[in-house]
Structure formats: structure tokens, C-alpha cells
């Protein structure tokens, strides 16, 4: 029988950094709520509220909080990998580290991919795939880009942690310099495909800040926040960078896909801001009821994130199927319905979480000695990374027509992406099996 959130909360040691857990839940919750709010659905399709009301794009400078999640990930990965090294100083723990960190990430992700893949195939074999169903088949996989980036962070943790332990802020500065160089080659020299390198440099730089926090080396958060905010503002003001810190439909340049130097400075601003709030945030997280809620939310966070777009599209699909009129986005009637839409999406998400949360529970761990094959694990996570990123781009629409999307410089189809993701996951499981980490 699983341990309840109340029991886990009560058993939490005083030494645990509860603020980090609070940030993890709050950042994912903000992303989910933002997706629900930004959806501007009409009978013609799904648009973006930020495109309808461009003035709202400024709010993305506070609400585009995915950098906070990756920052928290760096902190957690540093603690986890160092713990394994202390326990087994004479052995390679890479494959064990990968499996331990990815179990609660990949198991719910693979369940999501297989359920939606099967549903998409059935729908299209029956001649469906148009209207809101077609929109859903294209959109539901888009949040998987986050999973792919997170996989890369886990994969590179040992290397980047070594660089951090040797160079500290210099290692972070190197990643910032690399991101700046990529943008220079992209915008000034017009080098094709170079921009995709910033999927690594930008997000790994934010991840590196988590290592610095783990060592207590972010001592001037106000300066970090001010530098990030000023840098992002300057780049948007004088460069080719758009105002919005999230992707906008039809835009030629996005700060998100692929990430830009402006988004990296935005990440610095957010990390500095949350570090400034560390004192009151820690006191808030120590409240018994708050901490119990954080523990419970962390136990279902990935499942809720994976299925939240499914829930939202299901709500809109039900409204359209019932023949009810949808108000024009950003009108008074539309804003009046926002609380009802958010409540309905949250309710459907709760039902989906109840159905699929079992896949987020940690699998049984063997008591066998630590073992593993590093090269096999590396190959597995590479396959999984490219498969999940590819699926986030191509979606499940057009399965029978062989629809593809460009991943870096290679066309990838949904079946190929699913095969890579599943094969990579099995390799990671095999390489790290038999561990007690």
C-alpha cells in the first residue's frame, strides 16, 4: 500500500529544502494555468489570447516560469548525483542515476504517448481527424518538448556538474557565451540550423544556476534579477527579439522555439526573483497544511502536466459538440466565462490524474548491488530525447498520411518518434536495472 501525502509530509526531515519543492509545484501549476487561459478557441480552431490582445504579452515576463522549473531541476540533480557518488565512490553510477531520475518522468510520459497514439490511430482509421479532434491530435503532444529538454539536463548532469565543481560561475558564463554566439551566427551571419543549439545552451545555463544554488553560491539575487531584467529588456528593445517570452502563432522569430539569449536573460531575472523570496517562501512551505499540499501535488505533478491540454481540449470539444456558441476571445462574455472554463478543465484533469497517476508512482527497487552500463544508458537517453522532441513537433495528426516535422535537420514521423522514445526508455531501464539507488 502506498504512503499517503500526510504520512510523507509528517516524515519530512527538517533539513529538506521545502522551498524548492514549493517552486517545482508552483512553476508547473503556473504553466498549466497559463495554457488554459491563453487558449483562444473558436469554431475555426485554437488561437492564442496573446495574439488577440498583444498588450498581454508583457505578462509573460512574470508568468513564463519554465526557467524556474529547470533551475530547481539543476539543484535536485546535483544533490542526487553527489549522493550516489558518496555511496559508491569506486563505481560508475551514471546509468543508475539516469534510471533513478527518469522513472517518475518516463513512465507517465510513455503511458500518455501510448494512449494517445492508439486513440489517434483508431480515430484516423475510422475516417476521423477533422475539426476539434484534428486540432487535439496536433496540439496534445506539444508540451512534450519540456520532457525532452529535461532528459537532456539529466543526461548532461555528470559532465556539467564536473565543470561546475571546477569553474563555478565560469562554467555558467561559458554556456551564456555559447548562447550569445549562436544568436550572433543566427541573426548576423544567417547560418542555417545553428539556432537549434540553443535548446541546449540556454536551458543548460539555467540548469547550471541550480548547481550554484546547491553550493550556496547565489549570494546576490537582487543583482542577478536586475541583470536579467535589464538584459532581456535591452535585447528586446534593440534586437530582433519579440516581446513575448512564449511562442506566438505565425511569428518569424520566437524567444522559445528555439530559445534565444533574451529568454536566457529572462531566466536570470526569474531565478534572482525567486531567490529574493526564499525567506518568506521557506516559512510559508513549512506550514503543515501547505507542506502537505506540496507533497501531494508533487506526487501527481507530471501526470497533471501531461494531460492538462487533453482536459482543456475535451472541455471545448464538449461545448462545440453540444452546439453551444463560443464567445469571441477577449470579449466581455469570454472573460466572464474564464472561471467556468478553468474549473471545468481542472475537473477533467483531476479525473485523468486519477486514472493515470499510478504510472507516476516509483517502481519497486531491487536490493541488488549497484551496477549498470554507462554507454547503453547514454544511447538510451539520446534515443528517448530525440523521440520525445520529435513527437512534440509532429503530433499525432496525419498518421496515415505519413506526416513529418523537421527535427534539427531531419524529418521525423510520429511512429518513428514513438519507436525511438520507447526503445530509448527500455535501454535506460535495462542499463540501470538492479540498482538500489
Automatic annotation (TrEMBL):
Please name the GO terms that the record assigns under molecular function.
Answer: acyltransferase activity
* Keywords carried by this UniProt record: Acyltransferase, Membrane, Transferase, Transmembrane, Transmembrane helix
Where the record annotates domain Acyltransferase, the positions are 18-348
* Membrane-spanning intervals of the chain: 21-41, 61-84, 105-123, 143-161, 168-187, 193-211, 223-241, 261-279, 300-326, 338-356, 376-400, 406-428
Report the protein name in the record: Acyltransferase
Q: Which domain of life is it from?
A: Bacteria
Pfam families (UniProt xref):
Acyl_transf_3
